[in-house]
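Let us work through a complete example step by step.
Step 1: write down the sequence.
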Amino acid sequence: MRGFAIVSKGIEDIAALEIKELINTKCEVEQGCVIFEIGNISDLCLLCYKSQSTDRILYLICSFEFNNFFNEFEKFIDNSEINKWVKQYKTFKIECMRIGTHNFKSIDVESKIADYIQKKSEDNIRFNIKDYEIIFLIYIVNNKAYFGIDFVGFELNKRSYKIFLHPNSLRGTIAYALIKESGFEKNDLMLDPFSRDGVIPIETAFYTSNFPHNYYKKDKFAFLKLKLGIDFEKFFKNTDKKIKKPKAKIYSYDHLFKYVDYSRKNAKIAGVDKLINFSRTELEWLDIKFKKESVDKIITNPPSSKTANLYKVYNEFFYQCEYILKKESTIALITKMPEFVKKHAEKYNFIIYKEKEVWTGEQLLKIIVFKKKNI
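Step 2: predict the structure and record it as tokens.
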């Protein structure tokens, strides 16, 4: 059996690492997705509930490359195990997600596959967009298609705690990738000095406490409608037993009361506000709040607005980081103006440890991890 995860472009390796950590399996990374082996169908349910890096989780029925999708898809699906699923249910829904340029629309794909499934079942299963038992999803990336059963039923990257939003809020999945790229350990002292609406500290709290970000959405999953033979009450209970008080210390700072308030409220909705230290703090006061070389990780999404005095902000930011950050520790940030950031980091003896491009929708961002230069 194989599972399939849809992820944001650029964080496929992070998603593969998380999947391996959660269900201890081999992963194969492809563009915008991860394919992995599953020993038990409940592995997919666990990923739906706990994964912080993925957008959707599927049971993978088949994958194939094509030249003309409508002429070729039936021969690939005919050779798959679709019959095993079709015969168990009376109603279904079809979704199509696409990346790349195609000479067809998603709605055309959905209609064609719906007709095929109904024909395959001799009309024993009917398409119903509102009242369905099973969701078939086809994910098309350029000329490759992946077809399977959607176990989630909604987009995992849309966090339900994000009620009070900053205009440049990060997706939870991207924030998680930034945290992992920083090298964050579960007993670190972590600071976000530009917390905005609190996404980075909140995702850090989820990760370090094993608190599922879907804790309050247990009744929403598509897998609950599937005939899997799983005692879901027991499944959730056993998973939640692993929630623990973290050793990490998480600090969520911003210079505006408004965004400190946003962060605290979002964290309360998420269920992790008790795990985070909130404060309205100017950059200039960081060396008062923290002792010299006392911070393990600084993980943040610094400002990029032209209305801010960015030269002053970034000079002060790296000046403070040089003082409060431990010698072998890192700054991990995400930005849409990497050259500007690098220029200011260099002034304060920070060198690039690693960098990578990530996409949030169609927007390109860059994750940069800095370390102190050995002098």
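Step 3: interpret the result. The CA atoms of residues 44 and 342 lie 40 Å apart.
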